[in-house]
Amino acid sequence: MPTLLITGANRGLGLELVKQFDARAWRIHACCRAPEKAGELRKIAAGPDGRVRVHALDVTDFAAIGGLANALGAEPIDVLFNNAGIMEVRQRPLDQQGEAQSFGSIDYEEWRQILRVNVLAPMRMAEAFVDNVAASERKTIVTTSSILGSIAMTDSCRWVGYRASKAAVNMMTRGLASDLRERGITAVCLHPGWVRTDMGGAGADLTPEESAHGIAEVVDGLTPDQSGRYLTYDGGELPW
User: What is the CATH classification number for the domain harbouring 90?
Assistant: First the structure.
């Protein structure tokens, strides 16, 4: 039975990914900041099979990441999925965002927090759980990126903090792919599409179910020769 460790598992895309991998009979460590508020996630974890465990984890708290790593010990983790991310500190629908991340009105403290969540946290997770991943059969690290992190496709400075964070996490993933290749680890970044979540807004193209199903299919079929790629939820590839 393969094992998934996923962050940001309490709502939206993360919650749907838990459902998708649970349906595939994976063992799941589902992490979120406030499990007591994650009613739907806890309901899944209360299922009779006991495959899903919920962990309290703020990914910006590096001591907490270390504590979880110690708690899991040497347990193999087939897929480490860095899903937790923010587009802005006070999450609003996409059509209401961007004012504090536009040239001339940038909130630099917000930018710092975006970088903490979207870039520093995935790297710390990779460092903390690399031995667990290396001990597994699938040996995979997946980090949620965005098409807005593509430098080749950028045509606006709006959401510059978020765009910069995703470009940075793309670079981080390329580095992990190179540095961890000798340990047999595959590292990819993945664009989930424009999804109807709190981040994506009601006008987005995809339901969380559609995106998560595609992502699960892509992750399930990953091969080592795809390491370092910038993939989409439906198996395509984006330009850096």
Answer: 3.40.50.720
How far is CA 35 from each of CA 32, 39, 62, 107, 141, rounded to the nearest angstrom?
Answer: 6, 8, 18, 30, 24
Q: List C-alpha distances in Å: 26 to 76, 86, 88.
A: 13, 26, 32
- Amino acid (1-letter code) at residue 132: N
- 215 part of a folded domain: yes
pLDDT digits (tens, 9 = 90+) for 125-138: 999 999 999 999 99
Does pTM surpass 0.85?
yes
Q: Is residue 76 part of a domain?
A: yes
Apex 22 CA angle, 17 and 23, nearest 5? 100
Q: How many domains does the chain have?
A: 1
Q: Provide the 10 A C-beta neighbour count for residue 22.
A: 19
Question: Cα–Cα distances in Å, from 119 out to 4, 27, 163, 165, 222?
Answer: 20, 26, 11, 6, 22
The owner of tokens 């984006």 is 238
For 170-203, the pLDDT digits (tens) are 999 999 999 999 999 999 999 998 877 766 666 6
Domain that holds residue 41: 3-232
